[in-house]
Amino acid sequence: MYVRETGDPHAPPVLLLHGGGVAGWMWRPALDRLGSRFRAIVPDLPGHGRSAAVAYRSHEETTRAVAKILEERAPDGATVAGFSLGAQLTILLAATRPDLVARAVVVSAQAKPLRFPRAALGLLAATAPLAGREWFARLQARHLLIPDGLLADYVRDSARTSRETLLAGVGENIRFTLPSGWAGFPNPATIMVGERERALMHASAQAVHAALPGSRLIAVPGCGHGIPLQRPDLFAEVLTGRHPFGP
């Protein structure tokens, strides 16, 4: 798995886990605002970006690989922040390896499985070949709120994404349920959801929050499913604890 590190090598570590269909570049606006306050560990998850050659297979397998990254680069634990698919991985990592997660920031995690996942995946399989076409990628980028400065990265990586990765990643995402270990996570946790997200995402955020006593739930005004891209300033402030929404 490709991993990039930025920031002050002596600063507290933060692991940033991107969403499905994007890659570590999605954190660039937030990293610009964090500056040297963290040592940022930014992987491209399997099947994505510079790790596209290795297909995404499962959340469980990916969580183990992410845990290994932390064992090697932040064995005393790190703040772990994830968006969408990466937020589900953050929950799994906190539930199974709390020793590696000093704090969890869960951004737009779906935690309520779809009622008819096979139908959704069938439609996705039929349209998967379109992912490699630039016009379709540009339409998707608009839907995903990708800013103009990151559009070229999205178009490039859409063409790299394999059908196997697309179906496995989305399949895991839409079937995801909270692991039992999440309720016992002993460290601080912040759950974020965009005020303009779908009802399913608000219900999911409430479920993630309710399952972990003491966690903090933030509904970000004016945001849809793209908080780190729409409000990188606020996201960075939440990570550093300088915003009133912080821990």
What CATH architecture would you give? 3-Layer(aba) Sandwich
**Number of discrete domains:** 1
User: Mind telling me the C-alpha Rg?
Assistant: 17 Å
Total beta-strand segments: 7
**Strand residue content:** 15-25%
How many DSSP helices?
Answer: 10
Describe the protein in words.
This protein is of the alpha/beta class and 247 residues long. The protein has a single domain (3-240), classed as 3-Layer(aba) Sandwich (Rossmann fold). The chain is 42% helix and 16% strand. It contains ten helices and seven strands. Strands 1-3-2-4-5-6-7 form a seven-stranded mixed β-sheet, covered by helices on one side. α5 packs across α6. The mean pLDDT is 90.
What key attributes describe this structure?
247 residues; alpha/beta; Rossmann fold; seven-stranded mixed beta sheet; 42% helix; globular
SSE layout and pairings?
Elements: E1 3-7, E2 13-17, H1 28-34, E3 39-43, H2 59-73, E4 78-83, H3 85-96, E5 101-107, H4 117-127, H5 134-143, H6 151-160, H7 163-175, E6 189-194, H8 199-211, E7 216-220, H9 227-230, H10 232-240
Parallel strand pairs: 2-3, 2-4, 4-5, 5-6, 6-7
Antiparallel strand pairs: 1-3
Helix pairs in contact: 1-10, 2-3, 4-7, 5-6
